[in-house]
Design brief:
Blueprint: E1 5-8, H1 21-33, E2 35-40, E3 52-53, E4 60-64, H2 68-87, H3 98-116, E5 124-128, H4 135-141, E6 148-151, H5 159-162, H6 168-176, E7 180-183, H7 186-197, E8 202-204, E9 210-212, E10 215-221, H8 228-237, H9 244-247, E11 250-255, H10 264-277, E12 284-289, H11 298-318, E13 326-329, H12 335-344, E14 347-350, H13 359-367, E15 375-379, E16 392-394, H14 399-411, H15 414-430, H16 433-446, E17 451-454, H17 455-461, E18 474-477
Parallel strand pairs: 1-2, 1-5, 2-4, 5-6, 6-7, 7-10, 11-12, 11-14, 12-13, 14-15, 15-16
Antiparallel strand pairs: 3-4, 8-9, 9-10, 17-18
The structure holds adenosine-5'-diphosphate.
Protein name: Trehalose-6-phosphate synthase
Organism: Thioclava sediminum
InterPro entries: Glyco_trans_20
Length: 482
């Protein structure tokens, strides 16, 4: 019998047939292999002794329950007020609070304990994202010897920024307890290897893996994508985009969660600069969809007011009775509607200051009519820019450069638009989520699991034989060490 798959991610989809690229890919992998999807229960409540059955049909869905205190410390606190800003080069926004790190470790330890009750020795475990960095270490502590893979959906932090963590050396150790660490881009892999190279506990092996004490971990890039065909179909099936009188001659679009990493004020200013310097050609509007996110985190509270202020200023300056240059929708919009809006836009502004990949860039390309495609204006700091080199790449901090790219996108000849779109579409196909999940899981299956020694022998190897024997203690050693 082939190995079951255990997926851990912050959210588990509640619907039987989920939508959204990543979720669909994991759903398909779980359907194929059978297994369990583990995630946070959508509601907080008193601590539970075991994972809660969420009633999956083709595979099991189990949830861990967070208390209100856990949610504040682990999710809003350490994950989103420490790790997120560190990964997105905003150490100025990090909130240091002892209860955050304690909560993060406490929740990961509890999840590991509850997972250990439901996994079998042959299962392959795939853990997703920054909410769970220490989970493999906690599982190993409990004697779990399974193959464990980790995929990070956000940028790998700069190593100097890691020093802002309350316990910087723990970070490399957490990662070293995985068999395979997957990152979005080659640049992320380079940063991760730089961290290990600088760490006296790590040794770079000839096969490219890292030996870290008794652990051995491989680090590779697996650029994530979307379900290209289904997104393209959704875009085609949509009602035609709204009448032009609402938007001027054309519109450019932005679709983002409202987050400081997305570069929205800079984008609005760049659009203002485009309007300032507009003389001939199509006069476009900017449609920006940005639903609120993480509103209880302090750093997110000021962005909305800032954006509304800039949009109001630009509209006041350039608007006409029947035309507002910036339409800022601060609410979620149904996915199908987004697909149609992306298809109708002459250009997309995907200009984050830092972004692991940015799936909207790929969705915009997939949504286009290949015979008459729009143009993607893409930040160099989005992971997507590593492969989508035929987009118009910009430095989002440079308002003039972005304004020039907007003008260039709106006036680009059809032949060039088609050629650039075809090149970007190749990347979208090559990184389709189905292939992405298969490639990660194949690599995980190919990892030679370290021979893990548990119990008293582990203590002896660790040089801790004088300490009281803990039957649950374990460590692993690589074959070379044996
Ligand atoms: P992040 O994961 O940082 O939010 P991505 O661009 O990688 O950024 O992924 C965002 C996903 O959420 C995309 O699939 C996008 O279509 C979707 N999305 C973004 N904004 C909205 C919105 N306003 N309404 C619905 N879905 C959205």
């Amino acid at each position: 019998m082939s190995a079951r798959l255990i997926v851990v991610s912050n959210r588990i989809p509640s619907e039987a047939t989920p939508s959204g690229g990543l979720v669909v890919a994991l759903h398909e992998a779980l359907r194929e292999k059978g297994g369990i999807w583990i995630g946070a229960h959508p509601e907080t409540g008193p601590e539970e002794p075991a994972l809660i059955d969420m009633g999956g049909t083709q595979y099991d869905k189990l949830a861990f329950r967070l208390t209100e205190e856990d949610r504040a410390a682990y999710y809003l606190g350490f994950a989103n007020s420490v790790l997120w800003p560190i990964a997105h080069h905003r150490t100025d926004l990090v909130e240091i609070n002892r209860s955050f790190d304690e909560g993060y470790l406490r929740v990961n330890r509890r999840i590991a304990e509850q997972m250990a009750e439901v996994i079998s020795p042959e299962d392959h475990i795939w853990i997703h994202d920054y909410h769970f960095f220490p989970l493999a270490e906690e599982l190993r502590r409990l004697g779990v010897t399974n193959r464990i893979g980790f995929f990070l959906h956000i940028p790998f932090p700069n190593i100097t920024d890691l020093d802002v963590l309350p316990d910087p050396p723990a970070f490399a150790r957490w990662l070293a307890h995985y068999d395979l660490v997957g990152l979005q881009t080659r640049a992320d892999v380079a940063r991760c290897l730089e961290m290990f190279r600088a760490d006296p506990r790590a040794e770079m092996l000839p096969n490219g893996a890292i030996k870290f004490g008794a652990q051995e971990v491989s680090v590779r890039s697996f650029p994530i994508g979307i379900s290209a065909e289904s997104f393209a179909r959704a875009a085609q099936d949509c009602a035609p985009p709204p009448a032009h009188e609402l938007f001027g001659d054309a519109y450019v679009i932005g679709v983002d969660r409202l987050d400081y990493s997305k570069g929205l004020p800079q984008r609005f200013r760049a659009f203002e600069r485009y309007l300032e310097t507009y003389d001939t050609g199509p006069r476009a509007s900017l449609v920006q969809i940005a639903p609120p996110s993480r509103e209880s985190v302090r750093a997110y509270q000021e962005i909305t007011a800032d954006l509304q202020q800039i949009a109001g200023q630009v509209n006041g300056r350039f608007g006409e009775v029947h035309w507002a240059p910036i339409r800022f929708l601060h609410r979620p919009v149904p996915r199908e509607e987004i697909a149609g809006l992306l298809r109708g836009a002459r250009a997309a502004l995907v200009t984050p200051l830092a972004d692991g990949m940015n799936l909207v860039a790929k969705e915009y390309v997939a949504a286009q009519d290949p015979d008459d495609p729009g143009v993607l204006v893409l930040s160099r700091f989005a992971g997507a820019a590593e492969d989508m080199t035929e987009a118009l790449l910009v430095n989002p901090h440079d308002v003039d450069e972005t304004a020039t790219a907007i003008r260039r996108a709106l006036t680009m000849p059809l032949k060039e638009r088609r050629a650039r779109h075809a090149a970007c579409m190749e990347v979208v196909h090559a990184t389709d989520t189905g292939a992405w999940a298969r490639s990660f899981l194949d690599q995980l299956a190919a990892c030679t699991p370290a021979l893990r020694i548990t119990g008293r022998a582990a203590e002896w190897l660790r040089g801790e034989e004088g300490r009281e024997f803990d039957p649950g203690a374990h460590r692993s050693i690589s074959k070379e060490e044996v």
